[in-house]
Design goal:
Blueprint lengths: L3 E3 L6 E6 L10 E8 L14 E4 L5 E6 L11 E8 L11 E7 L4 E9 L1 E3 L6 E7 L9 E8 L14 E4 L5 E6 L12 E7 L5 E3 L4 E7 L9 E5 L11 E4 L1
Parallel strand pairs: 1-7, 8-15, 9-16
Antiparallel strand pairs: 2-5, 3-4, 3-6, 6-7, 8-10, 10-13, 11-12, 11-14, 14-16, 17-18
Length: 246
């Protein structure tokens, strides 16, 4: 009769057990039930007793489902109550009902450069790892957003990054690969790719939320040459010649 419960504010759900007519037996009818579902008693909700009493003169009684506001990162979970055979009643239809408990806890996400050294030679890729503080048990993928900075230039020094990475259901982390481009530019110092996680409603930013991969160049030596760009000089008129060093 109230199929939606939630950890936030400990919003309860309700099962209502009904007789097809008022109990006029002069005694209590105890109705048995079984409890299943994806939620765990005591951890996710206050454990239920397994039986409910419909007093003489009554026709219905409620079973209150009280969620436990834990800190576990998880998806919505279910509590299923199924009526069981007992004395003084017959099973009708339906014999089963479900209350869904909505989770209010978000994962904390962080990033680490698990391979902070990339190189044009090869090229040798670098790698960032984006991690949750717990396994993603929400039943859905989590998309983590990020921004990209640094001294390296996307599509010139490395293959451009997409700006998001997906941590699949059942997983705790995902990687972002940094693939250098083997250009011919002379670059005397390493260049950097800095990835910074971006806030979103699907997760909480943890620490660190930014890290750096360095790309080393393999074009660190100039090739020098000389040519006589004006190979003809003359005493007459002091006509000069020219060498050009490149």
């Amino acid at each position: 009769s109230d199929a939606a419960a939630a950890e936030a504010g400990v919003d309860t759900g309700t099962f209502t057990v009904s007789l097809d007519k008022i109990n006029n037996t002069g005694s209590t009818i105890s109705v048995n039930y079984l409890v299943t579902g994806t939620a765990t008693a005591t951890d996710d909700y206050v454990a239920l007793g397994g039986a409910v009493d419909i007093e003489d003169g009554q026709q219905i009684v409620d079973i209150l489902l009280t969620p436990v506001d834990d800190i576990a990162f998880e998806g919505d979970e279910t509590v299923i109550v199924t009526l069981d055979a007992g004395t003084g009643y017959e099973l009708g239809t339906p014999v089963e009902a479900t209350v869904t408990i909505t989770n209010d806890d978000l994962a904390t996400v962080s990033i680490t450069a698990t391979d902070a050294l990339a190189s044009e030679t090869g090229p040798d890729a670098g790698e960032f790892t984006v991690s949750l503080d717990a396994v993603n048990n929400t039943g859905a993928d989590i998309t983590v957003l990020y921004g990209v900075g640094g001294t390296a230039t996307a599509d010139a020094d490395y293959t451009a990054l997409s700006g998001s990475v997906v941590i699949a259901d059942g997983q705790q982390s995902a990687t972002i690969g940094v693939t250098p481009i083997d250009d011919t530019d002379f670059e005397a110092i390493d260049e950097t790719v800095i990835v910074t996680l971006t806030a979103d409603a699907a997760y909480i930013l943890g620490t660190p939320d930014t890290d750096t991969v360095n790309i080393s160049s393999n074009d660190e030596t100039f090739t020098v040459s000389i040519s006589a760009s004006d190979a003809a000089a003359a005493e007459a008129g002091v006509d000069t010649g020219t060498f050009t060093v490149s």
